[in-house]
């Protein structure tokens, strides 16, 4: 019988100050320094994919979330957030053109602060950009016996004065959630298609374990993936 382990959320966000471009799939992707992942899941929305390797002995999850950049139209007004206490890895392309990764806390509905204290250990993290595709890569140390992770992923407008800004409210954006079963990891470059997410009111939820924080602006783009909680067998 599965039970829900209530953990602080981990939000991984990639910000870039560039324009939208093309899509991709699992088999077309490669990573610098010959990085390889045992599994790849075609996510059911936003033409995105999630590459991952789970090491049950070390309780580590190494992953790359990949998505094409969105178009610049169709921005929406803010909605009520429910992500107070979320911890973030934020990677963005700075003025010098280099990608940087920083850690943040969402301390209130309107405040993001830099922090060097995360409840999950981050062994490494980086971001890559090539040919219109943004990638965020990281390795996390997870609690032992973790087998299921609820995910939310999104694409939308980027950052203003250090704050993320709103994603679109299109149907494809509203169904960007699913579950990752770490126990199914089999190695050998396994490819799979994630099941479509359950329907809802399209607000990415306003419950503590299922919501997406929305900010508003009209410049550049970000992609993010959020680990909402953990189901243990």
TrEMBL record:
Keywords of this entry: Electron transport, Membrane, Signal, Transport
Keyword rRNA processing annotated: no
Primary location recorded for the protein, binned into one broad class: membrane
Pfam families: DUF568
Spans annotated as Disordered: 185-208
Locations listed in the record: Membrane
Spans through the membrane: none
Record GO cellular component, one term: membrane
Signal peptide, first to last residue: 1-23
Domain DOMON: 46-156
Protein's name according to its UniProt entry: DOMON domain-containing protein
Protein's organism: Anisodus tanguticus
Organism phylogeny: Eukaryota, Viridiplantae, Streptophyta, Embryophyta, Tracheophyta
């Amino acid at each position: 019988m599965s039970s829900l382990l209530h953990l602080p959320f981990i939000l991984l966000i990639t910000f870039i100050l560039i324009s939208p471009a093309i899509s991709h799939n699992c088999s077309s992707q490669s990573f610098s320094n010959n990085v390889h992942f045992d599994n790849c899941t075609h996510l059911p929305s936003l033409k995105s994919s999630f590459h991952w390797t789970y090491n049950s002995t070390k309780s580590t999850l190494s992953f790359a979330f990949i998505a094409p950049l969105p178009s610049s139209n169709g921005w929406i007004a803010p909605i009520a957030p429910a992500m107070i206490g979320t911890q973030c890895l934020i990677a963005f392309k700075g003025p010098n053109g280099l990608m940087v990764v920083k850690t943040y806390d969402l301390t209130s509905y309107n405040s993001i602060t830099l922090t060097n204290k995360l409840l999950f250990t981050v062994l490494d993290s980086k971001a890559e950009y090539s040919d219109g595709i943004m990638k965020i890569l990281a390795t996390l140390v997870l609690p032992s016996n973790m087998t299921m992770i609820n995910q939310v992923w999104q694409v939308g407008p980027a950052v203003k004065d250090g704050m993320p800004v709103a994603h679109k409210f299109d149907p494809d954006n509203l169904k960007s959630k699913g579950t990752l079963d770490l126990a199914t990891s089999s190695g050998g470059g396994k490819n799979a298609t994630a099941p479509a997410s359950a329907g809802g009111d399209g607000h990415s939820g306003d419950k503590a374990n299922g919501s997406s924080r929305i900010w508003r602006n009209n410049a550049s783009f970000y992609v993010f993936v959020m680990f909402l909680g953990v189901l243990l067998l």
